[in-house]
Amino acid sequence: MPPLRTILFAALFALCVLGGLFVPMLGALGYVGHYTIGPEKQWWHAPVSGLGIRYSYTLALVTAVGVLLNWNKLKIGELGIHRNEKILLLFLGLVWLSVLIGPQTVGRYTQPGIDHPSVKFTKVVIFSLLLTRIFTTRLTLDKLLWVLVIASLLLGLQAWETPRRAFISGRLEGVGGPDFAESNFLAAFMATMLPLIGIMFLRSGLIGKIVCFFSGAFTANAVVLTRSRGAFVGIAAGGVVALIAAPKRLRIPILVLLILGAAGGFYLSDEQFRERMTTITRDSGQRDESAESRLLLTKASLRMVKDRPLGVGVGNFYQTIGRYIPEYAGKDAHNTYLRCATEVGVQGAAVLVLMIVVSLFLLRRIILRCRQLPKDDAGAFSLLAFGVMASLVTMLGCALTVSLTYVEFFWWIMLLPVCLDRALEHRLAEQKTQSETIRKRKKVKAVQSKASKPPRSTPRPAGLPESVARRAGA
Questions:
Q1: Which of 226, 265, 272, 295 is in the most buried spot, having the most CB atoms within 10 Å?
Q2: Per-residue pLDDT at 286
């Protein structure tokens, strides 16, 4: 008999595939869970590995078909294509333009089974646009966030269970889905999830708070095990934004959470982690080889941008960096913004920065607009917008030391403001309809009340007999 985890995985996969045709949200949630956990790498997947099922492809296809079949039921709003989505599509166009004008890609992306970044990014854009058409209410958005919270908990547990002998150079590696094969990518994802976990903790009841507590603890522990300096920078940036942008009524609870989180992180960290973090601010003579290589790669990347301002082509950084630093041939940029500028060109970097700025301003606009709602709804939306903002800033901080340009979760977080904006638009429209309905009911009641009153009788003139007055009235 297969292990219980295998049976549970098979049941959930079947539910998401079959249910996704009728409720696209199920297919999308299944895809997000699969992307995060990476079942193919788990020991309990062995009994079904021989089936040769492409889980991510199947779930994405089912989600797309489900969206088409249920298009009229989706609450997308009146805008159609959102401004942020247009920017994303513009960036996709620049990605393919760089492929057309750049040299042919050689090396790692020509190996069987590995998608070229342009192909991978096209898939990322398609699924991201599905997400922004499925999670368009607060209820559905909450379900997406809960899947991310639970997926982070499962990844954290897997990181905690991984024996130290499996670590590479003292760092946790190989945990999670295909985008998390390298520790810095896992650290960036887990760090990005921490603000969302914190927000769900504040918004939940007792059981939800317990789940979020353990999810946050194991997620933070996983970040420590990766020894990622970029995640440390990202968390610091997210913490600063959390203190500045937090709703007034929640500043003290959020400050308490940040203090407890910092204390817990310090408790979980060891001497190796603390020593590695101190290299961020050291002088050149005191940095380790990894930190020093980041600076050399940054300088070489800037020279590359100067030489090829239109970009060297998507996927071509690895084959180009050797011209500037021969000993670093085949190395990555370790920086999202520089990887974008060198491959997609300055125009691609400009569009990426535009996307970031527009997303942050959209979140600020959501916080201001949600004040039109009743107090409870306004508080929920402002808290969600604040959490997404802190998560986005955390991810952008992590992006300083890891190349997330074509990584899927990077664009999910970038487009979460679109989901939240559509959810707010839907709630405002719903409130307007409710107000109009109440106003019409009051008007109808007023007319009915007036019609039900008996007609006023004509008063009898003084001094006339009643019979004479009655005849006069007739």
A1: 226
A2: 45
